[in-house]
Design goal:
117 residues; 0% strand; mainly alpha; de novo design (two linked rop proteins); elongated
Length: 117
Amino acid sequence: MENNILKVKIHEFIKLTYQYSNQFPKNELYALTSQLRRAAVSVMLNFLEGYARIKENVKLNFWEISYGSARECKYIIYLAKELKYFSEDEYLRLTNLIDEISAMLWVSMTKIKNRKL
């Protein structure tokens, strides 16, 4: 159940990322726009790849990559706000959502690490 909630939140984050990044300047299309979108999708794809694995070490590896992509998104969102590509409300919505996703991923990774001890 927890993983289903996480998948829904990541999916919402991806959709908002695409929606909000549409307003980035056209000269960012192959820079920040592309990087943010790829990182956002990477959060989901690596989470799902790990979720589908049986071996816990493999699962953990993919979830760590997913977590890293989430942190990458967090910085890009901050930079975009500083460059005034996002409104304050958009920034807060994305930041709160990616922080929540990151925390849920961290808990999932910690559970695996604790089972290995």
